[in-house]
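Thread: quick sanity check before group meeting

JM: Hey all, I'm pulling together slides for Thursday and realized we never actually wrote out the predicted structure for the chain we discussed last week. Dropping the sequence here so it's in one place. If anyone has concerns about the input, flag it before I start.
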Amino acid sequence: MDTPTKTLTFETRLDLIHEQDAALCQYAELWNQVKFRWFANLQKPKSQQLNRTQFMHEMGMPFSYRVFQGVQQSIKGLIQSYQTNRNNRLVTLDVKIKQLEKTLNKLNKRCDHVAEKGCPQQAKQLRNRLRQKEVKLRRWQQKQSALVAEKQENKTPICFGGRKLLKERQALETGSAIEGWKQRWYEARHREFLLVGSHDESWGCQNAQLSPSEQEDAYQLKLLVPHQLRATFGTTINIDCLKFKHGKAAIAQAVWQNQVKKLDKSIKGQPLSFRFKRDKKGWRLLVSVEVAGPTEQAEWIGDDQGVIGVDVNPDHLAVVELDRNGNPLQHRTFDLPLHYKNDAQRAAIIGDAVRDLMDFAAQQGKAVVIEKLDFQQKKRQYQKQDHPQYARMLNAFAYGKIKDLIETQSIKRGIRLYHINPAYTSLLGRIKYRDRHGFSDHHAAALVIGRRHYGFKEKPPKQLIGINAKGTVKTEHPPVRMALGDYQYYNKLQRWYQPLEKSLDFLSGWRHFRRVNRVSYSVEARLDGRPGMSPDLIQESTTLLSAHPAL
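JM (edit): ok, ran it. Output follows.
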């Protein structure tokens, strides 16, 4: 089995003297000047762009090709991030526009109905509300058109330093305020630089070499100074006594591997990349290392004894434990209250939930199975919900962050992670397993996710037994499969089931499903607490369903 790899980044704070701090500031200024010019070069038409050699000669060869490779990777990452965020904004706008158009249609019908009844005051209020919605719709459509045009023209309008800080300049009038803003603007644009490494270079990186120090669990960093700054700061900058709070095992393994490579050329080195970032407290060093195995235990936890199926949702992780035969053993819920939280709080909440999930998987000794989805697919899955509170919750949904943390923790903890095709997992779970096991829709989907990893075929029940709000029991039969493929049939099944679910609260079951006590419990759980549903009606419905001949 292939060993999964993941690039992990670990951080430490640098304790520098004044000369070292000044050298890093000058290094960052030179590096970012090249970065801005290279980005401007990439925005030109293909015929007018300079290649790397031409560009470096035009800039006067400020540093080596290896340093320039860090510039290229940084720009590439910024462009990919902007394009991904733009696609996510387009998905969000598409969902908002469709929901608002439905609301406008309802308001138009209501206005006509109120006008016919002869209520001028109420009709006036509805028309005002309708105009406000129409203005909002036009504004969202204009944003959508602008983003689509920008995407078609392949533009990436990135503002180095941030648009928020740039807009502050418009409100400043006095000279002292403008000078203070210029200083903050300069610091925001020249606060970091990146040095990438390679496995065939000394100590994993040519321009920043991390080696063991005399102190225990400490390292020393030898930073190579660019040619243009050597007359002032010398050839190298030596920073000693670097200690990492996290990732000690991964960094120690990479440094040891690069140290052994110097003695045995047949051993492949470990590439190390270094990002220097400056904030209010000073300089931070972020070291990126590629991890190809568990760092917290010796062996991997596989799927021999079963798996943990996980369905990722905007407000929680639905988790179901399965045995090797695909039978559910227990289910858990890990909440994600991300609404009304800032980025740091959301990261902490997601980290806690993922840690609890991995603790549960390690405790049970089973691998984890999740859906193979991206943000756009996952968000479209929930776009049918039309409620302001749900929209706010969906806006805080950080599916990419959750998925990335699960992948990272699985490698750290040595827990195998598997991805499956997510097609129709929610539909099959809702029809087949929801009421049979007393699960929610999401836990039922997690059960299907875990079963699909083992290749189990999900056949829908031969009949569905439902009960409506009046207590009337009805039986429906799914469409015949005939010669359709699995996913063609599931698509047909979904078109049949969706209108049915709106009219009835269905309980799924086979013909031989005769356990009346479980069915009664499911009916009571489904109907209890609903507005207008009295206990007498619940009891009456339970009695009717228990006496149904199909059971």
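AS: nice. The two ends are 47 Å apart (CA to CA). The CA atoms of residues 110 and 220 lie 73 Å apart.
JM: adding both to the slides.
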